[in-house]
Give the backbone structure.
Amino acid sequence: MYKITTLSFLSGIIAASGSLIAYYPLDGDFVDASGNGNDGVMLGGVSYGGGAGAIGGGQSAVFDGAAGTYGSIEGGLQLVRNETFSVAMWVNADGTANSDKRIFSEGTSTNNNPLFNVGTANNANDGTVDIYIRNGASLNHPRSTGEAFDGTWHHVAFSGGSDGLLDLYIDGAFDTTFDYSAIPAFGELNTTTIGGILRGSDCCNFNGSIDDVSFWDSDLTTGEISALAGGASATSLSGIPEPTSAVLCLTGLIFALRRRR
């Protein structure tokens, strides 16, 4: 999955690389602040915390980890079927108290097989980020190198698409690329959830806090992910300076940077 990032040498500014599908500040509700109307509903034991329990001075969604507790977007977004896609959010949880709990998932209510989800370590032995992708063939719980579930706030972002490569970032820094290219392309998906998995029923319910969730139809740039991890809101990404690379410094004449993140 390659992307051309056009640079402006007059302003040193780039626009966001793709369209924002949905943005959830989670300030007391699951309303989509992108203007696209992709509102969600919180089910079960979800509350909202403020102060130090939220990012950006607002509120965050607090999930109690019980069955029936998760956030669902009506009809699903089929995000992972896009040519490229990205997911970004803040998380705060103890991985050792969250065995195989999911912060993001897509699937279908009529078939338990297709699943694309990201969450905590499946044996709860550390705070790493755990990936599970299945559609007949499966990618069974590979882990991040760094930890995002250590009982404090961390930013998690990942980008994937039709090339079958999932790039994971923790706190704005690249962590790992996961290869799921051997898994067949997904058919129709009708569930998109945070804080758990929804198929015919729900499972893998997250015990912790989630804040500032954004979904994109693009492979976000390193600069955009870094900005989100630095506290920028998804709706403010337009006009973020792209970090200068060593190659650009050496040549001074390159007008496009082609890169696989």
Remarks:
- Residues 18-238 form a domain with the Jelly Rolls fold (CATH 2.60.120.200).
- Helices lie at 222-229, 246-251.
- The chain has one domain: 18-238.
